[in-house]
Amino acid sequence: METLNVSGGRICFSQEDLEILEDPRTPTLRRISYGIVLPAICCLGIIGNMLNLLVLTRRNMRGTAYIYMRGYSVAALLAILFCIPFALRVFIHKETGRWNNWPQAFYHAHLELFLGNGCLGVGVMMLLALTVERYVSVCHPGQHTRPLCGPPHLTVALIPLATFLVYLPSVFRSEVTTCFLTSEGPLIYQKRENQSFLHSLFYQVYKVVLEIVFKIAPTILLAGFNLRIMVVYRRSCERRRRMTLSRTMSNDEDSRTFAEERRLILLLGSTSILFLVCVSPMVILNVTLSENNLSYFSYQVFRALANLLEVLNYSITFYIYCLFSEDFRNTLMRTLQWPWLKSGQGGRKVPMKRSPLARPTTTTTPPTTAVATPGHLARVSV
């Protein structure tokens, strides 16, 4: 993409030359996808995950499940933040970039994908660890007195270290090159793929294994565990319904139990499908991404769609919480309204709203079950 001048230094192509080489529809696609839609999704995700952390750090959110939920929210928030410079680079600087300073070029060449994909991988592992713990507590109650994945705080600390270590080879997939705008112009830094590394046998195997470990296998495991949780929870509700209906439960309370069960089933089913739809395109993209493929407009459309879907999956968690979890909504309302309510009630503490459902003394599941879905979480009273 450059020509050689007399002194041996490369002269950069002008912006007009680069636009002539690409499909005329690509700039419009880039402007809509990375200049409008992706920033809007990122704004929703940043606000949502910050509110997630605000709620999940409340006093009544101190269980093991909420440790993993906080870890997931932090990873999702960081991944969305790292997505912003990626979107700006694609929108403004295209694929190779044209920077006046070396640190900025170094970030986009070596750290951009490493940090963004690493945070997404951390989020997936947090969800997987949480789902395993919930599966054990719901489907095999009483068999494990300690968390199966180890001390939660230690696990939350080790997951990022292990994940970023696995993603470390992606640092070397690109390199920084230099060129001149004119024969006597200023030095410009650009990003270029490290072809020798990308075509090595190690990287060809590595990128496939990476997608299996962080995309395909977690999707299968999360779907399987959540399906089992859903079946066991439904059976537990049915047994509890038969026990309580013969005692004092009213029709109104019974309808609330049915409504809660429906919410959980809809949550697990819909979000499992959503996660599969949002993650599958990214698996294909990461395996096939190359400068040669990026020259095709159809591949650019597929790439934009895959990026938008993955960011969307990590941006709507808060809104799923609010839609399906009554406990989460109540905690959010108490947290946001606390200063005004306290001053309006003479400094008295706002009472916690409790579920109107009767709590049986004998049950096959814990009093509260934090259910993990492949991209979303919900705390369900059972």
UniProtKB/TrEMBL annotation:
A GO term, aspect molecular function: G protein-coupled receptor activity
Classification via Pfam families: 7tm_1
GO cellular component: membrane
InterPro entries cross-referenced by the UniProt entry: GPCR-like, GPCR_Rhodpsn, GPCR_Rhodpsn_7TM
Chief place where the protein resides: membrane
Region spans: Disordered: 347-370
CDD domains: 7tmA_FMRFamide_R-like
UniProt xrefs under PROSITE patterns: G_PROTEIN_RECEP_F1_1, G_PROTEIN_RECEP_F1_2
Domain (G-protein coupled receptors family 1 profile): residue spans on this chain: 48-321
Membrane spanning residue stretches: 32-55, 67-92, 112-132, 153-172, 212-233, 264-284, 304-324
Low complexity biased stretches: 360-370
Family: Belongs to the G-protein coupled receptor 1 family.
PANTHER family noted in UniProt: G-PROTEIN COUPLED RECEPTOR B0563.6-LIKE PROTEIN-RELATED, G-PROTEIN COUPLED RECEPTORS FAMILY 1 PROFILE DOMAIN-CONTAINING PROTEIN
Protein name: G-protein coupled receptors family 1 profile domain-containing protein
Organism name: Vespula vulgaris
